Amino acid sequence: MSRGLGFRGPHARLSVFLAIGALLLPFASLAAIAAAPRVGDRFDYDYNTNVDGGTGDYYGYTDHMRSHSSYSVQSVQGDQVTVRGLGSWTFDGSDGTHQSGTVDVTPIFSLTTRRYYSGIDVNTSNPNTTTVWFWVPTPATAGQTIPVLDDIFTVTSTDATLWLGVVPHKTLLLEASGQYKRNDAYGQFDATYHDRYYFDRDSGFIVAEIFDEHDANFVAGFHYYAEVWVTSSSYPVPIDTVTFSLVDLGLPGIAVAGIVTGVRVRRGPSRLRLGSKDFPTDVRIRKAKRPADVTNLVPDGSPFFGPFLSVFAERSIAEGDPVVLALADRKIVGMSLFDRESMIGSLFASEEVVARVLAKRLRMRDFFADDNLPGRIFRAKEIDRFTILQLQNPTAPAYDATIVRPMTAADLSDVVAIAGQVYGGRSRKFVESSFRGGDLGFVAMHGPAVAGFGFATVVGPVARLHTLTVLAAERARGLGTELTNARLATLAALGVERVIVEISKQNVASLRIATRAGFVPIGETIYYSRKPEAAPTALQRQT
Predict the structure, then answer these.
(1) Averaged pLDDT of the chain
(2) What is the pLDDT confidence band of residue 29, given thresholds at 50, 70 and 90?
(3) Helix 252-267 with 352-361: angle, nearest 10 deg
(4) Residue of 172, 226, 221, 171 lying closest to 195 (CA atoms)
(5) For 399-429, what is each residue's pLDDT tens digit?
(6) 21 pLDDT band (50/70/90 cuts)?
(7) Domain count, the chain
(8) Cα–Cα distance between 66 and 500 in angstroms, integer?
(9) pLDDT band of 272, cuts 50, 70, 90
(10) Taking residues 376-381, what's their average pLDDT?
């Protein structure tokens, strides 16, 4: 399931069961350096993988693979290096799957290109361009790029500290991050990964790899994690003597106390007591990682968006985004979440002290917050203000059904493309989660083409209009008004009693449409940034 060792890169992906066998192998090859591989060079390593954090169809599913292998250089003849790999592995899944086996491979690779000549020990779509994973040429310099398997890594440190047990070692650190499309026995997923390789600075051979990946599609997701640790080798990895002296030979008690204090100061407390001495309210701060964590909660914690907090949390969790809750028993009194797609978060809280802790617990550079919270507590600069408008007891305005119609699944690709053009960033996950999460969606047509769209979220008697979007070339034709009227007519038919909408003060056209529909201002939210010069444009909140 991963792209670690043999799964890395948009091309080198193993199917589930092929992966199990090849997983043992992937961590056995690296390319040579000035100190080229020699006959007798060897290393033993453990390679372990875990799948957890499942959502949707993968909720509750876990699996893990455990392996141990030995690699040794058999011969070096001119440009060709022959390596022998022997190992064994076991695989267990929570669905009852159990498999085990052995590995015996003999990869031959080029010293010059590090590409495989034969005996490739990983599955890849293009073995002719795949480089070995267990050896890289040294010395290397920071910023240098080095291919590993079918991915390109950057040397981020030539002096990285890596802990092997209780001993810190000096290593060469290579990192790569990215996205790719998974299509294997697990299904079709959008995968986001971060891969770190640690190599011996002298010989160039592998010391460790740490691979982290998150996979998601419309109906499911999971977390994949893999580690490689060299357990013995013919090449000594230098010890980080400074770190060893400070940590292993220092005062661990003081260090632990300092860490605990630092974490508490940085993260804030896990429990708060609000209210008066006679009528206190105990509040717990905790992460929400599963849909069950927000089931049957009573939403509150925001003067404007309180009824929608549970929906926001559920969709963020489904997308694999972080969510932190402040709970008074089963009541949400605050929440912070971060949308990785837009790189913009949201913070809601009914009390300043709750907002302070949430801001520490989930640190976000760019985020929205209600204006009932003093901006000074965020240590961030105000970028934009959004007006919150409300419409009581909406009636059913007329709209042209030949121009506006309900959104269908077939419209999603067009709608995502329009969002990308208008907002200048990624919006696919947000658009699709809104549609598949049950929001009312409408599209406006110009001839046979989709020219705009808008959504409405309904929670009991309250609704929220969001994401009114029209292509720039199609504006000033009344499409925004038609989309608004279509949504309001549907909400009126459903018996909705109150509708809110959030619009940037810079978006004069949308404010005009809302005002003409009868909306009146009731408050504001503020878009903040801790790095204003790099803050992304936020024409609307992707929550």
Answers:
(1) 87
(2) very low
(3) 130
(4) 226
(5) 999 999 999 999 999 999 999 999 887 889 9
(6) very low
(7) 3
(8) 52
(9) confident
(10) 90
User: Coil, strand, or helix at residue 99?
Assistant: strand
Same domain, 208 and 329: no
Confidence tier at 39 by pLDDT (50, 70, 90): very high
My answer on whether 158 and 205 are in the same domain is yes
pTM more than 0.85: no
End residue of a domain, out of 196, 215, 248:
248
Residue type, 523: G
Strands, E assignment, 351-402: 366-370, 381-392
CB 49 within 8 A of CB 2: yes
pLDDT grade, residue 165 (50/70/90)?
Answer: confident
Of the two residues 318 and 244, the one the predictor is more confident about is 318
pLDDT number for residue 26: 35
Query: Which residue reads 């977390």 in tokens?
Result: 223
Q: Which helix (H) or strand (E) holds 526?
A: strand 520-529
Contact 469, 453 (CB under 8 A): yes
Helix (H, G, I), strand (E, B) or coil at 324: strand
Residue 238 sits at the vertex; the CA angle it makes with 134 and 247, to the nearest 5 degrees, is 120
Sign, Cα dihedral of 198, 201, 203, 204: positive
For position 449, which CATH number holds?
A: 3.40.630.30
Q: How far apart are CA 356 and CA 181, in angstroms?
A: 38
Q: Are residues 244 and 97 in the same domain?
A: yes
CATH code of residue 290: 3.40.630
Residues 276 and 228 in one domain: no
Mean pLDDT on 111-139: 91
The CA-atom distances, in angstroms, between 270 and each of 287, 302, 358 are: 10, 20, 10
Q: What is the mean pLDDT of residues 12-26?
A: 33
- AA letter at 533: E
Q: How big is the chain by its Cα radius of gyration, in Å?
A: 27
Using a 10 angstrom Cβ sphere, with 0-12 exposed, 13-18 middle and 19 or more buried, the burial of residue 207 is buried
| Same domain assignment for residues 436 and 348 | no
136 with 238, same domain: the answer is yes
Cis peptide leading into residue 269 (ω within 30°): no
The answer to whether the CB of 335 falls within 8 A of the CB of 285 is no
72: domain CATH number?
2.30.230
Q: Hey, how many other C-beta atoms are within 10 angstroms of the C-beta on 352? A: 12
- How far is the C-alpha of 320 from the C-alpha of 304, rounded, in Å? 25
Q: What is the mean pLDDT of residues 506-533?
A: 94
Residue 537 belongs to a domain: no
The residue that leads in pLDDT, 250 or 372, is: 372
Q: Are residues 349 and 403 in the same domain?
A: no
**Residue 511 CB neighbours (<10 A):** 18
| CA atoms of 326 and 356, how far apart (whole Å) | 11
Tell me the C-alpha distance between 387 and 506, whole Å. Answer: 10
Query: Is the per-residue pLDDT at 24 higher than 60?
Result: no
State which residues form the domain around 169. Answer: 16-248
Q: Identify the pLDDT of residue 254.
A: 52
- Residue 326, number of CB atoms within 10 A of its CB: 27
